DNA sequence: GTCTATACTTAGATAGAC
DNA sequence: GTCTATCTAAGTATAGAC
């Protein structure tokens, strides 16, 4: 698969460089020229690997989305609603915490989101699946809005600079507790989650 | 002040046009050329009224921010903590609901935020003041994160397309209730809010 | 004071040579 | 797989017409 061909190397170096520059200057503030200069190649060389700037953006974001997908699959395999909710929430929070620099980047420069939506069948699918996992198939209005606020709040606040210097475990714990509280589920301390609904 | 000079008219038409195009194509997807064409003038004419594209963006966003500022002032004038919190929260929710199309725009295209931050002494000040109003001067970590999640969640979800077809009053009620619940304050039904803390 | 004509710089993107 | 050259469009800027 990933034999160390020159292209593979350039491609991965390119993605690493792009992520670094994106984080420093934002996506909009990073030109292909900058990326090319940093790599010691020309813009055209960059274009050989990615047909458009959006493709680079997507490739940078892909790992987090893939992982979220896997976590949602896992949650859907749970047999009780309570376990589904816990799995979905903890998966969501885990991704937020682990990829928070990426999320911060996206939040600060979300022309990105549109690019991602176009490619990955839409982030909308992610959000819709997540909502169903957490609120069930036919939530009333209050529940639906509540879940939307929760998802948006956890993601945005998780990536926010105010929380940037918290260690992963602390942030994860707090976000998870907030999520459970918002879903009307009791705090759990260490033990396995119980079926509740 | 605002005598009907040609410039004033062009300026306000320009802002209206910009808002419309921004909403349709996003800020990044709207060029000065498009705005100029729509107005039947040249790019340079646009440039006469606003020295940069960011200035247009700021001017479009300004009313909402000004109003939020006023609401925070009002909240700070309240004598009890409980009344401060209620005022701040309801002011915040009101702005979100009334300007939700603007918020949706910003969320979908947040290169904007940086532009606004640069001009209006930073959105950071808004967020910091709001946090202090809602969480008090020296909140513990859990409270601080909780308020951050709430602010981010209400704002983002309020502007989200899922809630787009709710009428203002319904959305306001739900967001306000979610906010109060997250702050650990009892629901109030009709009556004036009581001092609680 | 308001706008047009024009031009400069940089960005994203493409074609074709090596 | 990478480079040179080139194109279009964006944002910015100025000189000058009215």
From TrEMBL, chains A, B:
One annotated GO molecular function: DNA-binding transcription factor activity
Pfam families reported for this sequence: TetR_N
Gene3D superfamilies: Tetracycline Repressor, domain 2 (1.10.357.10)
InterPro entries xref list: DNA-bd_HTH_TetR-type_CS, Homeodomain-like_sf, HTH-type_TetR-like_transc_reg, HTH_TetR
Portion annotated as DNA-binding: 31-50
RNA-binding is among the record's keywords: no
PROSITE patterns: HTH_TETR_1 (PS01081), HTH_TETR_2 (PS50977)
Domain of life the protein comes from: Bacteria
Keywords: DNA-binding
Domain HTH tetR-type, first and last residues per copy: 8-68
Name of the protein: Transcriptional regulator
Organism: Saccharomonospora xinjiangensis XJ-54
């Amino acid at each position: 698969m990933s034999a160390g061909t020159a292209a593979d190397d350039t491609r991965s170096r390119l993605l690493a460089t792009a992520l670094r520059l994106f984080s420093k200057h934002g996506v909009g503030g990073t030109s292909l020229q900058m990326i090319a200069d940093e790599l010691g190649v020309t813009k055209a060389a960059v274009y050989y690997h990615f047909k458009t700037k959006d493709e680079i953006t997507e490739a940078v974001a892909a790992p987090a989305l893939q992982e979220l997908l896997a976590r949602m699959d896992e949650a859907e395999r749970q047999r009780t609603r309570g376990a589904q909710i816990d799995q979905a929430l903890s998966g969501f929070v885990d991704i937020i915490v682990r990829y928070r620099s990426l999320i911060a980047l996206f939040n600060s420069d979300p022309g990105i989101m549109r690019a991602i939506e176009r490619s990955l069948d839409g982030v909308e699918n992610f959000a819709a699946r997540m909502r169903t996992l957490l609120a069930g198939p036919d939530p009333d209005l209050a529940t639906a809005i509540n879940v939307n606020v929760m998802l948006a709040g956890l993601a945005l606040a998780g990536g926010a600079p105010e929380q940037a210097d918290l260690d992963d475990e602390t942030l994860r714990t707090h976000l998870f507790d907030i999520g459970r509280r918002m879903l009307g589920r009791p705090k759990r301390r260490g033990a396995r989650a119980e079926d509740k609904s």
